[in-house]
Amino acid sequence: MLGFILVNDMGRPRLEKVSEQSDWDLVASARDGDMAAFAELVKRYERPVVHFCQRMVRSREDAEDLAQESFVRVFRYLERLTPAAKFSTLLFGIARNLALNFIRDSGRRGRGVTYSLTDEDQSEKPLEDESRRPDREARLHEIDERIEAGLALLSPKHREVLVLRELNGLDYNSIAEIVKCRKGTVKSRIARAREQLRIHMERLGGEEL
Amino acid sequence: MKKRISKAEVSAYLDGEAKNPAVVRQQIEDSHEAARHYAELSKLSERLKALPEPELRPGFAGRVVASLNDPLPAPANRWRVPSAMAAAAAAILLGVAALIGVNDSAPSTETLQTASVALSEEAAILADLERHIATSPESDALLSGGFFAEPEPVVELPEDLLVALAPSDWLETFTASIATHDHRIEATTLNDAERDIFVQLLEEHAVEALQGQAAHEG
After folding, report:
1. Residue of chain A nearest B52, judged by CA positions
2. Which of A99, A133, A169, B30 is 20 to 30 A distant from B146 in Cα terms?
3. Which of B7, B147, B154, B169 to mutate to test the interface with A (most CBs of A within 10 A)?
């Protein structure tokens, strides 16, 4: 959707494309009742926020619900937002809290994602016939499945920092703001998450990546 | 003797966040082990980044905008601490408070393991907690999600309340490690550095618990 908003350019009204506005300019416009501006914010961040939520809670439907709730909360507290932090940091922080609550509540209700690590589950997979090498695409798909399974086995604290770093591309400072810990803690958690993921993947039947 | 770099430094180097990237780079060039570790992390990172993104159902932004008119849930007036968690934390609190306050002498195992809590003590802790939350200037921001008005809301709670907010299973693990003289905890005493870490962990858990509870009730 392409829209325009009216901005006050040194006392002269001017139309500006919504897509060219900075995040905080859009927040200011939304605060004044411009729904096109808020919708633009949603469009900018819907994919990364849903992506993050899905890696945390595993279900696409739940991830979209959590992402939607994150945007709704932002909208409801527009009046109180301040540009002291990056908008994306605020948004991811809310999404992170909601995802962690969801995981915690799912655990209490006895739900949750389980990935089997037992040998018997691996034995249900057909043995590879070494005389027929799988093509590269199938091989990569298999690796992706192991990575997904390994990610799910990480604790939420380790999974979130690894997802924010590798899949959302955030730097350590931004991650530290989102998860509310020191940069050094982010560094050690990411290192630990990578090590644990590597170990999980080995157990899940992995040779080299 | 060359200082060996940690795996965490290699991991940070991969992300462009190493403190001394030149040192890490040199180590990777000089050490087969460091080079292998870096290669493994690089491959893992490459595959993680290549994971397919989830498909969004069409019209996500429209659904968000449409939901903005939904009525707000009723705000929670009281911040509740699960009583089971508070009771367990209070039981451990008595032992841990003694531990924090002691520099040189080792607390007895009985203090850590056998503290019992009268119902009146649990109620007093809960009342203190609720009063502190209600009067804290940061509590409003936290109950709203924790990111408004100030970039990083900090709720300063006394240590006994921090312990009361900490997950009971975490505290049990921590104090069990102390009781069994786990070598990582340096016998039964906490030095200044360990106490700082302990308090920091408690603060992190406390903020997380407050934000989580607010999000859950909000």
Report:
1. A144
2. A169
3. B147
Higher pLDDT, A12 or A35: A35
Render pLDDT for B78-126 as a digit per residue (tens, 0 to 9): 333 344 444 444 444 444 444 444 334 444 443 333 233 333 455 565 5
Question: Scanning every residue of chain A, which has its alpha carbon at the shortest distance from the alpha carbon of B146?
Answer: A94
> Over the stretch A104-137, which tens digit does the pLDDT of each residue have?
887 765 544 443 333 333 334 444 444 445 677 8
Residue of B nearest to A60 (CA): B54
- For A17, phi then psi, to 5°, come to -65, 135
Beta strands in chain A (DSSP E): 4-9, 12-17
Nearest to A188 among B8, B51, B67 (CB): B8
Query: Chain B contacts of A67, Cβ < 8 Å?
Result: 60
Tell which residue, B90, B97, B113, has the closest CA to residue B178: B113
**CATH value of A135-209 in 3.40.50.10740, 3.40.50.150, 3.30.565.10, 1.10.10.10:** 1.10.10.10
- pTM tops 0.80, yes or no: no
pLDDT digits (tens, 9 = 90+) for A19-57: 678 999 999 999 999 999 999 999 999 999 999 999 999
Burial class (CB in 10 A: 0-12, 13-18, 19+), B179: middle
Instruction: Output the DSSP codes for B24-53.
Output: HHHHHHH-HHHHHHHHHHHHHHHHHHTSPP
> What's A17-112's CATH class?
mainly alpha
Write down the domain spans for chain A: 17-112, 135-209
Q: Give me the residues of A, 48-77, that contact B with CB < 8 A.
A: 50-51, 54, 60, 63-64, 67-68, 71-73, 75-77
